[in-house]
Amino acid sequence: MITHLLTRIDLMMNSFSKGQKRIALYIEEHYDKAAFMTAAKLGETVGVSESTVVRFATELGYDGYPKLQKAMQEMIRNKLTSVQRIEVTSNRIGNDNVLDSVLNQDIEKIRRTIEETSHEDFNRAVDEICKAKRIYIFGVRSTAAIAGFLAYYFQLIFENVTVINTTSTTTMYEHIFRISSDDIIIGISFPRYSSMAVEAMDFARSRGAHAVAITDSMASPLVSSADSVLIARSDMASIVDSLVAPLSLINALIVATVLKKKDEVSETFRALEQVWNREGVYTNHEADDRKASRDGR
Fold first, then answer.
1. What kind of fold does domain 111-260 have according to CATH?
2. Global pTM value
3. Lower CB density within 10 Å: C or N end of the chain?
4. Where in the chain is the domain with CATH 3.40.50.10490?
């Protein structure tokens, strides 16, 4: 994708107007910043009008500026360093209210996730999870938190669940070397993508296991190794990885799985409730209030 866009620009540079050349040069040198600018902001930055930016996108063969912007974002996917993320986030939010800005951006990511996630792949993933002999869940670094969240509930629902959050390749293979066609692996990775996630998915699929990718784009390296792809939008340019939409998707996956195994799961949770009550795992407000009342007399 990098070569594709920059090659277009190089080939057409001589035909651009003076203003378009400014845009082209800025994109070549600062595409990591330009990718997250509106057409108006990009025009202001290079000293041309918003309409010039829109015409530039059309001139390059894109159906409007949003398509050019998407191409630039694909260029930098998995390439922004932590320092670049801080700078881009600062430019995007500026002096705006950080709380409102971040929450609104997360709302937008959930909206896009609803639009882009395949219901067919989601239902297939639920079916394969429910019939799998063993379930492997892979998530490292920032995605280890949501992998652990998914594993917590799946370990209550299913008998054989393994969560893999190691950064050691050797240990990763030790966890999954028994995987077979009776099993399923759920690989979770977002920019910057984990190379180990790709390795784990490739290995599992080579053994015949059903592979589910939870990732942010069809351009993700996990997609080529997956039988089912669940798209959840993150924010590769944020200072921290935005995992709101991925967590919502995982919530939906847990709920759908429970509903599909409703009777069996209900029995499991009835038994668990007895254990939790006996061991005092959760606070019983009524009992605590009665005890406080007795202690006060």
1. Rossmann fold (3.40.50)
2. 0.71
3. C
4. 111-260
